[in-house]
Structures are given as structure tokens and as C-alpha cells.
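User: These chains co-purify. Model them together.
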Amino acid sequence: MSLDKDMVRRIAHLARIRVADDELEPVARDLERILGFVEQLNAVDTEGVEPMTSAVAMTLRQRPDVVTDGDRREEVLANAPDRAGAFFAVPTVVE
Amino acid sequence: MTATDLTRLGIAEALDGLARGAFSARELATAHLEAMAAARNLNAYITETPEQALAMADASDARRAKGEALPLDGIPVAVKDLFCTKGVLTTAGSRILENFVPPYESTVTAKLWAAGAVMLVKTNMDEFAMGSSNLTSYYGPVVSPWRAKDDPRPRVPGGSSGGSAAAVAAAIAMGSLGTDTGGSIRQPASFSGIVGLKPTYGRCSRWGAVAFASSLDQAGPFARSVRDAALLLRAIAGFDPQDSTSVDCPVPDYAAGLDGDVRGLRIGVPAEYRPAELPEDIAALWDQGIAWLRDAGAEIVDISLPHTTCALPAYYIIAPAEASSNLARYDGVRYGLRVPADELTEMYEATRGAGFGAEVRRRVLIGTYVLSAGYYDAYYNKARRVRALIARDFAQAFQRVDAILTPTAPSDAFPLDAPTDDPIRMYLNDVFTVPASMAGLPGISVPAGLSRAGLPLGLQVLGRPFDEPTVLQVAQALERAAGFDPLGALAPALAPAK
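Assistant: Joint model of the two components:
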């Protein structure tokens, strides 16, 4: 498994994490090591094995479709880095 | 009783003392707050909460005076900074949450307070619980109270729940809360010479605990005895409709039936946990543990868990995949750090680039990669198939045995300045704890002896889903036979300086 700097740049953009240009190379080496380590799974025979979806045997419980909480605008906004009135504020998305 | 005496009590003893009126909850809290202030050099804390502690202690004394004492009334505890605590800074050890004050309380901490426990401190931890050393915390490493015999270098307490482990080992708290995703309770318990219990997945609610890998994360207690861990588990376990994977089954009185009687129990010893490179002192301690249980009347059964070595690589696909999804919420919009930028995507990238440390970034990138188009099946689905095989190994073993005994970790506590340039080397710390996490099983680490270097070593007991009672029973048999002093780290301080 080899990763080049462009691939790291692409993954970092997908993950919305800025990685400085001079870090692309060391990050690529780290990721290669990890991918190299996990590749030993290719040797495991998983023919006919269903992917495990739950850590304990259970079917996902459904809850009644009712309102159980709400009317907490100030609490919801209390940690906002920036707000405008009753809204979270972000840089302009549409001019 | 002196303040030092009070901090060295176990939970069960302290409850007796409170009930007899030998001391008050306020005296108990004050003694622990003093111990906490005196041990700041361990860097085990992110936020100290002395005012809450005293207010909660006073409320506890008032309840007791009215004859309305609760199961853990007046017991001072520490809480990993991964649990949301209403009105108290909750950082997950990350810069990206350095200013986050939750407007709500996690279910397990709410249950602790409802049982009368007293909050002393939010403890330091590896960032987002990703680490086995506490070296990845934005708030700096935690220092273990333990030192090796002939080596003065500071040691790690293990991780990720390192602050919670160090606090209990240093007699700052009587018990504490941690979380375990791949070993983050059991491994620091082993390194720190205390008891650490990871309950069955679904036993304790995940609601209000900052998510790392949702199919693996589980809250659990640290304590200085198996009985105390049982008391804490009873308080935090139970069904929570707010966690969709919480399991609705009765919570036993774990401490009531606890007598360490293992006669007739079948204990499995898996061959795969004895790789050629296992250090001799750890292998010897494991053999000793086997002998202790045999002497106590258990039947020892050799078993095989053939997919053991696949667990760690599968974990390092599944856990980062889930983390990359869970950590997508840290975008600088609704809470936490924001690094301003002119454009929205730039703001996300700048915020997350600055807010996440190197290990978190690494895992989010790996997770993003293995979930991306074209790789999903080869990595993520492959890992989930392997996970099914790991779970099947355990299910088959538990048809023949009642519990499984292994070492907790492949080493003792390493120095703070150990090389960390190779991520895989660090990941290997969890080689014995990850398999049970993948299968959702309960596990406990019991301090059983000292390494050649004079540092604590734990033994791990694994059980069937929701069979914490048997796990605790076996753990208590080991505890009794080992006679380990969980406050051993403090012993040198009592001896005259040489």
C-alpha cells in the first residue's frame, strides 16, 4: 500500500481537515503504516460470513414517534462560536 | 481519623463509616479535595470542581441525617472528561472542545449523582479517548503515581482513561468513571495497579458520553477493590431509552452475591494470548493466576480463540471508521473551537485542522479513507466480517467455559518519554483487550502483581454477555489470592527518605 501526497490531500479534504503541505509526507507515511498493518486481514477467510452490525445480539429498538424534549433555544445556542439572533452564524454561503 | 486515613478507605468501608457517623460526607470530601490539591503534579485533572463537591457532600449529609441515605451517599468520585456534565467544562481532552460547557448531564453521571456520589474532578484523558498512554491529551500527559524500582523516570498511567486511573491509584478519589472502546479502562487499570471494569456493550448508557466508536464505546468504573467496582457498576448500569443500543435487562445487586467463590467454575485459558514475545514476568503472572484459580476450586480448560490476532487490525479499521463519522460534528458552527475563515469549507478545514491533535487526525483520515468509495468493501466490510468471526470464537469458547483468564496488557507502564513515532507500536498495547471489545463482552482487570521493574500488572477476566456477576466473582478470587496493595504507589512516600 503506498499513498502519495495527492491522495492524502484528497482524504484530508473529504474529512475537512487542513493538513499543511509540509505535513503531507509524514502523514502519508503514518497512514501507510496503519494500512499495511490492517492488510493482514486479507489472509483471513471470510467467505460466507455476514458483516457484524451489532456488538450484542439485538434488533434496533424503535421509539414512539412523539416529542420528548424541546423549547431550549438558549441552551442549544449557548455554546455557539457566533450567533445572529436565534441562529448559528457562519461565513456567507450564498451571496 | 486523619485526612490521609479517610482517603485510603475503600467505598464499602467509607459507606460503613458514614452510616455509623464516624465521619461526615463533608469531612470525606474535604480530605479528598486536599489530596487532589496536593497531587496536581500528576496532571490528572482538566477541571477541578471543589464547590460542587462540598455542596453535594452537604446535601448528602442532610439526606443521611433524615435517614434517607442513598446507595453511594457521600462517596467522592472522579469523572473522565468524556462525560458531559451540566454546567461544567467537558473537553474530551481536545482543543476542539476547549470551551464546551454542556447544557445537559450524561446518563451515567446523572445515575451516580442520583445514587449520592460526590463529584470531585473531571479527569485528563487521551484526546477523544484515542490512545493508550494519555500522551495524546491536549492538556498534556498524566503522570502515574507509580515508579519503577531502579528508574526514576515518570511513567504513563495508561490510557485513554489515564486521569481517572491515576486519581484512584493516588488516593485522590475512591472510585472513578472511565470509558473503554478497545481497552481504555482495563489497560490503565493494569498500569496503575487498580481494578477497572468494562461492562457488556449495552449495559451502561452511552447518552451524553462524547462518542468515539459507537459500536464499541462503553462506560465503566475504576476502584481499588472488586467489591467497590461492583458497587459503582450497580449505580451506573441500566436501561436508558435515550441510547438506542442500551439493553433493557435487570441490573443485579453485583456486590450482594460477591464472595469470590469460584468452586466448580470452568476457566478458559486461550493459547493465542501467549505469543512468543510475551514478557516472561507477564507470562509467569498469568500462570500464577491460573494456579490461584485452580487452588480456589475452579477447573482450568485450555481453549483456542483462533482469530485473536485479527482483532487489532480489524479494530483499526472499524474504530477509525466510526470515529470519522462521529467526529464530523466538530465543525466550528454549533459549539467548540472555531477558526474564522472567509468561506465555509475553509472554516471547517481550518477549525478541524487546528482543533484535532495528531492521533485524532490520523484516525479520522484512516476512517475517511476506509469508508470512501472504492475501499468500503475491501476494508470496512472485510473488518466487520472478521469481527463476526472474533465474536464467534468467543461464543464457541463460552459453550465450554464460564470465564476466560488472560493478561490485561503485554507490558507494564512505560516511561512518558518512550518513543511514540510508530503508531502501530502504541496500538499493540491493546492487543489483549481489543478482542473482547469487538465481541461486546464484559471484562475486568485485577491488579495481580508487580513486573520485574516493580510496576503493577493486571490480569484480565472476560465473561459472557451480561455475566458481570461471574466476571466479578473470578476477579475477587484473584484479588484475594494476589493480596496486591492498590495503594502501593503511595508507600514510598511514607518511608523515610534515603
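Chain B touches chain A through 75 residues (CB under 8 Å).
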